[in-house]
Specification:
Chain lengths: 429, 429
């Protein structure tokens, strides 16, 4: 098949008819498919079920420091959980607070705390006329929504193959004191699977923020979520790099076991300099007496240590690989050479990021929905849900079985082609 | 022994010498005792250990509505947990959100949400010049601290035997639009064990707040925490009373299983009118994808229903009764008839509230501390930690074994008497 752009109006009309027929056939199947959210499959969740076969006796409920995990206390988390989550993030246990089941909740509360009380003694952001947050795009919709809720001005920063456009990041951060933060998913970024280059990480660490209360929100959500043994992303340790660069307090790092053990019942943590941790604890102590330490200890006992956790991730990869392969195969088979779309080849994380022709993403998603396939809303990966070029669609293949992904992608590729043909006809009209 | 006030200066000096000797003997024992916080004992925590012997298979991880509790979702909590916590609070499941392990965290976040975003469309409290919160005293220190952190003006409302002084509450709430809330522990209040009378509850429900965003923070922390089968407190249902009185949206109710199952790993919930619940959910959805539903389901499976939970509470009562009895016995034996103190006789909850002679509470706590007994700080039960008369001390006997409580109370009563004698001598000087 030759590139669609080279087709004549008559060829396009014929193609449209053919695709419409294929689309109607799909619709007639009464599909009900969902590749919208990065949810683990039951098979993945089953991997951690042995966690519930340990810790039955009272004696097993005592943490390394003698804490009875069933009772109140331990605001920072139990020592062995701080160690495990610290090892996950490359942080010393003293730099770690282990929270409850949601890293999104930690990030939201961290922003809320800055709005209400400021950062390490700075003016509370609620007292400022304007707060700006940098949003590498495409990015994680829930990140952007948090800062949108607080009324911040969201500034899009284009992603490159090495991470966010650092020239632009430096220009904003180093010159504008209203810029208070940036959302980062440094490893297998959501949605485009980008791994920040070493240079990008070092440039982040070397920022000279105009605002003393500027913080990098380093959401290391996929730090161990590799798809291939022989191609595991490793990036420099942001905490160490910031310290080396004389910016020890500039970063908050976040991680969770939501996609390691249970999405609804894992443990989540933040790591940062001791000064930041003390600042957070000084406010956190009014919010709660402590998080669920039984679940913290259960996780440590299950994994033993970070190596146990990393071994566990190989089992996830084995389940996920064929699902990603199914997505990529359909995209290549059905859209390859048509010059109407591009997509990434992720080596980890939870998403394939798809870019169709300009002005076709919304239409593609709408066509899919009408035929029974739910996708993340077009534009979701951009601040305010607005993709300026209307090209990007996030594909999340983790939840359904391979057979359903194949069905979904068959429909998806028809819709993407149909939307492209419609667009080209519009342009030729 | 006759009342201390009737003793001559010489008699007081002789008594002081005697008490000082007794105090020094206590100090020499090198005690290390703690009756400062309302923490359950290991024996109580053991009651819920069978909870960890259920739910091992993937099939057991499915909630009543088909939700896999291990995965993301269900922001309001799973249906059966909403039912259980609703039954605990006298609320329909549709009026309930089940959160994580801490009701304090829910209350803090509810206040924070009001500050950041307002209440059902009202002006965010951060935009107001002044916010006042009513604090029945003595009360729960962590309640007061939350509202202190947000910079509110805390107004003390004296407790009576029927609950807060409602004349004063009505005067403030019905006339002052800056009054946005009141902290209540309606059943077995912290620390004085007061059960609000039916009239008090009805007067709360019939308030006519000057502020449309005024809310009663009804922390029903001890709703099923009875000590005696034949003397269980029952008060009118605040949600129903508010609705009857034409104020359906005026109350937020809170409860948790922290002192039913595990203080660090229970489940917590709020209940309120549907309009309030919708308002909370409309903000909460940006903060988290959902709370730990595995723990929610585990709790429901363990108790089966509210009757199972209530039966479970009888086991707690059996453990707690002798501890409370030990406190009361020493107070009666050592301080009865001296006219230097009074205390309550709680029929539920977690505390004995002690009032010594004016100006002696701090001294008593300091003497105890020096001899190895940790008590909640004097004044903790008052806003800003300031007990205007310096009389109140909260005694929390749940954690230590009876033998330690007896030791602790022996020391305590010596310190209380010594502080009283010192005070009387000062007055006679």
């Amino acid at each position: 098949m030759k590139p669609y752009a080279q087709l004549t109006r008559e060829e396009l009309l014929a193609l449209q008819k053919e695709l419409q027929k294929a689309y109607e056939d799909q619709k007639a199947r009464g599909l009900s498919l969902d590749i919208s959210r990065g949810k683990p499959s039951s098979e993945q969740l089953d991997l951690s079920m042995p966690m519930f076969d340990i810790m039955h006796s009272s004696a097993e409920m005592i943490a390394a420091d003698g804490t009875d995990v069933r009772n109140y206390g331990q605001l920072s988390g139990i020592p062995e959980a701080r160690k495990l989550m610290g090892d996950l993030m490359g942080a010393d246990p003293s730099q770690v607070i282990v929270f409850g089941n949601s890293s999104l909740n930690i990030m939201y509360d961290t922003v809320a705390r800055s709005v209400l009380f400021g950062v390490m003694g700075s003016t509370p952001w609620s007292k400022l006329d304007n707060v700006k947050f940098l949003c590498p795009v495409p990015g994680y919709d829930r990140h952007f929504s948090v800062t949108e809720q607080f009324g911040f001005e969201l500034i899009s920063i284009p992603m490159t193959k090495d991470g966010p456009d650092m020239d632009l990041v430096e220009e904003y951060v180093n010159n504008d004191p209203e810029v208070k933060g940036i959302w980062c998913v440094p490893v297998y970024s959501n949605p485009d699977g980008t791994v920040y280059s070493a240079e990008t990480v070092k440039r982040f660490a070397a920022l000279k923020p105009a605002a003393s209360d500027f913080r990098i929100y380093w959401d290391n959500a996929y730090v161990v979520h590799h798809l291939y043994d022989d191609n595991e992303a490793v990036i420099p340790n942001i905490l160490e790099e910031c310290e080396k660069a004389g910016n020890p307090d500039m970063v908050y790092q976040f991680a969770s076991t939501s996609k390691i053990t249970f999405s609804g019942a894992g443990i989540a943590a933040m790591s940062a300099s001791k000064a930041n941790i003390d600042d957070v604890l000084s406010k956190l102590k009014w919010q709660t007496i402590g998080h669920d330490k039984v679940n913290q200890l259960r996780h440590v006992r299950f994994f033993k240590d970070i190596n146990g956790l990393k071994d566990h991730m190989k089992k996830h990869a084995a389940i996920l690989r064929p699902k990603f392969a199914a997505v990529i195969k359909t995209l290549e088979d059905d859209l390859g050479g048509l010059d109407i779309a591009r997509w990434n080849y992720p080596t980890g994380g939870y998403f394939v990021s798809f870019d169709g022709m300009e002005g076709t993403a919304k239409r593609t998603v709408a066509l899919c929905k009408e035929a029974g396939l739910v996708l993340t809303g077009a534009g979701a990966a951009y601040p305010y849900g607005k993709d300026p070029k209307d090209t990007n669609i996030r594909i999340a293949p983790s939840l359904p079985p391979v057979s359903e992904i194949e069905q979904a992608m068959e429909l998806f590729s028809i819709c993407a082609r149909l939307a492209a043909v419609e667009k080209l006809l519009e342009e030729k009209a």
